[in-house]
Amino acid sequence: MSIQAGLDFIVSMLLVACRIAPTFMAFPLQPVISLPARIRFFLIIAVALVLTPFVIISEIRISSSYELITIMAKELVVGITLSAVVMAAMSVFLVAGRLIDFQMGLGAATLLNPQSNTQNSLIGTLLTLLGTTIFFLLSGHHALLKGIIETLNIVPIGSTIHPNGLLDAFIASGMMFMYGAILAAPILLGLLLVDLVIAVFARTMPQVNPYFVGLPLKIFLGLFILTASLSYLISPITAVFEKIFDYWGQVLVQ
């Protein structure tokens, strides 16, 4: 009996790991993505080992390896759906950064990320680091673990989510882009006024090249407005993290 109980626990832990793996492997916070894939794998196993005793495990009867693979696939689908909401939330900072970079004239300037071999936005990287700092200051990592436990209890291991949950995940992704525009709104509005002033000077003094005069001015004023509006950004960034769990509830509760 003890051997059977041990096998049941191992299977349950494996299924929990399949549920949380997409979120941990794709979580875009800098302290997580900087870890090697092997370290993240062992982190997933360790978290699954800790969470398994605290979650509701439905009565699962696995009589073959095919059934085990099928249930693991179901858990991966649920995990990918939940991780899509997290990815959308963290994409808010990149969207806001891209908008600000384009308006400031830094659209062609990017940072090389040697880990993913991709080009990252300058301001987007800054906002992502700011969001990461606020996430840990608000104990978001604790709230994330509690949220994972709640999702495991709402949709027990071996269960599936309603197909409408997938649609809600895509809707949540679209709503998150709105938050990106909200984050970038003060800087975009200030730079729009700068463009209007430069346009007036270009009409009244045509001998002045508006590009070479306006570009450094827009970069300086854009960084100044961004610095001045940091206190304003804390509230919408906090709302973005809170929306993760709200959308998780909408996706799972159908």
Automatic annotation (TrEMBL):
Keywords, alphabetical: Cell membrane, Cell projection, Cilium, Flagellum, Membrane, Transmembrane, Transmembrane helix
Compartments reported by the entry: Cell membrane
A Pfam family reported for this protein in Swiss-Prot or TrEMBL: Bac_export_1
Membrane topology, record value: Multi-pass membrane protein
Transmembrane portions of the chain: 7-27, 39-57, 77-100, 120-138, 177-201, 213-234
Similarity remark: Belongs to the FliR/MopE/SpaR family.
Protein name as catalogued: Flagellar biosynthetic protein FliR
